[in-house]
Design brief:
homodimer; about 100 residues; mainly alpha; about 70% helix; about 0% strand; binds flavin-adenine dinucleotide
Chain lengths: ~100, ~100
């Protein structure tokens, strides 16, 4: 059912964007590997099979950018916009990331 | 701010529970490693720092169960109940997992 799929998508994007926006400004190599591995494992385990397959292709075309918080957050915004385009949703202005996501932590 | 932290928590639990409930019934060793690594990386990257630290302790006490879908889903339910107890929230009946989570995929 499409509503459940959309709700899962919204919940997931919220976690992923907030995660990149709290990622270290100056990550160590270990932290960089952690984020890269996280996204690859995520793309295998995401519970919508069709979405997971598409996202794996996207990761090949746009490998995770992990050199800094800004790089990671912008990369994910661009990738989400690729999904938006495929689903005929409007493009999100990546300049609005910080104003949109607040984890309160 | 507490509302943002709670919303992030709700979104995240939704992803995690749906993920374990779609995990293979009979996973390969590679799939078992993927889920185990996923939860450990997640516990490092979760954007609420205090929650991440607590969750890392929980993973040490209750390592991810990855032998089957049922094992993984029940394990996560038990771990979430540990968080509920710490936050003085009611215990969730793990018999209701399937009825509560539907990803529509
Ligand atoms: C990895 C992944 C793959 C998916 N693949 C598919 C698929 O193949 N088919 C399918 O039907 N659904 C897929 N989904 C679900 C889909 O992306 C949407 O989540 C769902 O359709 C609900 O859309 P929405 O319009 O509520 O906004 P969402 O796309 O869920 O976005 C939620 C909110 O995030 C903000 N936002 C929007 N774009 C961006 C951006 N670029 N950067 C930062 N914030 C943004 C907006 O405030 C928006 O309201 C996928 C979800 C994920 C997480
Ligand atoms: C890994 C993690 C660690 C966290 N640590 C903290 C912390 O240290 N401090 C803090 O203040 N907040 C923490 N949170 C947030 C907190 O767990 C809640 O998400 C938040 O307080 C909102 O609570 P809620 O009452 O809406 O229900 P949530 O606990 O978010 O649960 C959402 C829904 O899931 C269902 N549910 C409840 N229990 C279970 C269960 N055992 N199994 C399956 N489904 C269930 C119910 O339908 C519930 O309404 C953490 C979140 C996560 C994901």
């Amino acid at each position: 059912n499409a509503t459940a799929k959309a709700e899962l998508g919204r919940a997931t994007w919220k976690l992923l964007h907030t995660m990149t926006l709290r990622y270290p400004e100056e990550p160590t190599q270990d932290e960089r590997d952690a984020l890269d591995n996280y996204f690859h494992l995520f793309s295998r385990l995401y519970p919508c099979g069709e979405c997971a397959a598409e996202f794996q292709q996207l990761l090949k075309k746009f490998p995770p950018q992990t050199s800094s918080r800004r790089a990671a957050a912008t990369w994910l915004c661009v990738v989400h916009n690729q999904v938006n385009a495929r689903l005929h949703k409007p493009e999100f202005d990546c300049a609005n990331l910080d104003a949109t996501y607040d984890c309160g932590c």
